[in-house]
């Protein structure tokens, strides 16, 4: 706003007998201030606010002010956000009769202006005198969760009430339609955004943001534990990628003493084991005998120590026979050092912080399985040519704090990452560093200061022939390799054994298998890097590999670049077929009109995007079971688009090439490009929006 205009506005105020009434009269007779942005009405209002500060004798009181307040209240619901605070300040609405303000907001609510009622309540701090469930329900139905968060932000008691309400709605026997019924005909109602899955995500977000005890939400926590338990059973008994000890650790900490979860555990055991196996695990997880079916209870009585010893021995023999299939550490076991004291750690620093050193860096943390909070690093692995150091981070941080030297560990880690003379190797460094920052706040800017780092995730996207199908035919039911394991298999000949990946890394002492896994994960980076530097051309990389990679930040390459290459999709976008012995020809080109798909419920954004391009799309609802996709696909001849675990189940229920796994971390546009390229769908200008009303 020009200085001349400001001066003119102030002279105008000085000439008015009652500037407050004058401003209201001007706003009531004009409508330019109702739009967004800095209107003339906005400029005049903010100038009056400043002018009042310079003329403190002006503010009025009594009946005259009350009349002005009544008039301005009627205007606030039409105000753009930038005018609310100045008008509330000028007309001293915080001093107005509270019951009068509550009545006004209640009137807005009854008119169906729920958003306006909530915003005004926040500005006037009326929340403690309102019903939090009543105020927030229509906002949630309209997908305004951010406004709900703001509404309770300053009131811990309201946060707890809201969380308890949301948790009640997530109870399996609760009928969500009972909440929706009073709001039939609600404008901007988004039913797809109002279901148990979305509500439970909101609960976890609020628990974390407001640091509330999760015990306040038993339904949501139980359902998350149930999903975790189902996932663990899948990993152990279907995918077979989890060791017994590892699985038992997680099952015990997930189920605990919870009777409901113990009941589900017994049912799951009976689906996956015989009665004797179920009895053994029920005993291991301390399930009360009275909860067991008769057959399992009888087996429990027969169990002896010898049975358990035999089982463990069998498992050990199986592990030993499996080892030859996987990458093995080339250094002796005594060269792996587990460090829990500062004396040992300082000796490690001396070796690592040498100019010219090449260090493989990795980190491990306990899987959160979607529970509250960011993962905290439990183990930091540093691999040198002849030895590997495993740093017990929680223990070292605790000791440093006790000695009043909290900055000791962050200081070393910052020195390591910022020293350009030391080459640091990692895989997906951004993820590791964000977990490191959550563990120790002093490290939050480490990524900005990084020098001399090589993120092999960036290399993995450039290596020729890297696809999830690569040479796993002979491995039977095992899952296709992905991520670092796939890169190691391609460059060194054997994949990593990932059975310990989901271990409880916070539990001490670590098992021997965990120690070997953690050391291998860091050491293999050295071997992969050395091999790629020696012979980059044979992997389709430029000869200046070292120069081009050192110092690169670990940003994931965009999917679009990858799609431009003549190569198989990445592991997260697996092709539908099984192992291939020869390159298959691309399918004949088809138009979007000839391509019909059913999208699983985690891919609704992709489904809508494809529909805009003219593809015939059916979308699963949030409440639908994934298996419904297979029914629709078989009945209507559609291709299934899905992701993650459901892909493994659904691919076996339809013909070859009729199920495709999409990378959930990509945006809808990148996902669509991936699908169109894979099925050779050619989109013309006429196809775009051809299916839209």
TrEMBL record:
<protein>
    <submittedName>
        <fullName>MUT7 Exonuclease</fullName>
    </submittedName>
</protein>
<keyword id="KW-0540">Nuclease</keyword>
<dbReference type="GO" id="GO:0006139">
    <property type="term" value="P:nucleobase-containing compound metabolic process"/>
</dbReference>
<feature type="region of interest" description="Disordered">
    <location>
        <begin position="544"/>
        <end position="591"/>
    </location>
</feature>
<feature type="compositionally biased region" description="Polar residues">
    <location>
        <begin position="565"/>
        <end position="575"/>
    </location>
</feature>
<feature type="compositionally biased region" description="Basic residues">
    <location>
        <begin position="553"/>
        <end position="563"/>
    </location>
</feature>
<dbReference type="InterPro" id="IPR012337">
    <property type="entry name" value="RNaseH-like_sf"/>
</dbReference>
<dbReference type="InterPro" id="IPR002562">
    <property type="entry name" value="3'-5'_exonuclease_dom"/>
</dbReference>
<dbReference type="InterPro" id="IPR036397">
    <property type="entry name" value="RNaseH_sf"/>
</dbReference>
<dbReference type="InterPro" id="IPR002782">
    <property type="entry name" value="Mut7-C_RNAse_dom"/>
</dbReference>
<dbReference type="InterPro" id="IPR052408">
    <property type="entry name" value="Exonuclease_MUT-7-like"/>
</dbReference>
<dbReference type="InterPro" id="IPR037432">
    <property type="entry name" value="Mut-7_DEDDy_dom"/>
</dbReference>
<dbReference type="GO" id="GO:0003676">
    <property type="term" value="F:nucleic acid binding"/>
</dbReference>
<dbReference type="Pfam" id="PF01612">
    <property type="entry name" value="DNA_pol_A_exo1"/>
</dbReference>
<dbReference type="Pfam" id="PF01927">
    <property type="entry name" value="Mut7-C"/>
</dbReference>
<feature type="domain" description="3'-5' exonuclease">
    <location>
        <begin position="336"/>
        <end position="537"/>
    </location>
</feature>
<keyword id="KW-0269">Exonuclease</keyword>
<keyword id="KW-0378">Hydrolase</keyword>
<dbReference type="GO" id="GO:0008408">
    <property type="term" value="F:3'-5' exonuclease activity"/>
</dbReference>
